[in-house]
Amino acid sequence: MTSLDKPTTDQQGTGGDGADASAATKAALFEAFGGVRGMVETTVPGLVFVAIFTVKRDIHTAAIAALGLSLLMGIARLLRKDTVKHAFSGVFGVAIGAVFAMMTGDAKNFHLPGMLYTLGLAVAYIVTSMVGYPLLGLILGPVFKENLSWRTRNPGRKVAYTKASWAWGLILLTKSAILFPLYWWGDATQLGWVKVALGIPPMLLSVYLTWIFLAKAPPPIDVIAEMEAAERAEKAESAEGAENSKALS
């Protein structure tokens, strides 16, 4: 978790220069969204499904292979003691798609749960930005130890989170606008290969834009450090009061 702690410390001006803070912020963003490995893990099972279905035209074989690979990658994460969330989120998504495709007998339905999730996430990013609680701020606030301080005490970061959330929302909405017509009017192979091609690039673009917006924003307010400092001060004051009372008695 060092990479997640580093942005707060450096950006608060406790020894890190601008370049170090910027690099740490980028590392924290990638880590928060699963890293490059997480992006690959969400793309490869779909690639395996599409490749096998293209060759064999067998939904069950393709779905079971994709699910098996996803399970192996999840187990590998657990063995490496990585975050459980990242270990199981991909497995869960692939499992739903695999079961749905096998039950309906339509290979396109392997991709539908992920497409619906992407569309829902796009709407969430946009709506939360419109109401003043940008989703990206809710996600990254704890990562940078600022919680919701960006909303009331750090307006520059609220602006950055709002811009970044709009970027995520519009990018994911564009992705959905490409995929859903293929789901309705294209065939399973076309949909699968396009979905695989649109797996990593939109994510990288979204993370990059988020980094750009946050790099130009004020540093986060470390509310965790503030609470710890207040707690230490309170304990010191209580100890001093006890000593004074003891001396008077």
Index terms:
disordered N terminus; 249 residues; 12 helices; single chain; mainly alpha
Please provide a written account of the structure.
- The protein is mainly α.
- It folds into 2 domains: 33-110; 111-233, no CATH class.
- The chain is built from 12 helices and no strands.
- It has helices at residues 2-11, 18-32, 35-56, 59-79, 84-104, 112-130, 135-140, 149-152, 155-185, 188-197, 201-215, 223-248.
- The radius of gyration is 23 Å and the shape is elongated.
- The termini are far apart.
- Mean pLDDT is 83; it is low at 1-16.
User: Assembly type of the shown chains?
Assistant: single chain
Task: Please indicate the count of domains.
Answer: 2
Beta-strand segment tally: 0
Cα-to-Cα separation, first versus last residue: 49 Å
Quick synopsis:
By secondary structure, the chain is mainly α. It folds into two domains: 33-110; 111-233, no CATH class.
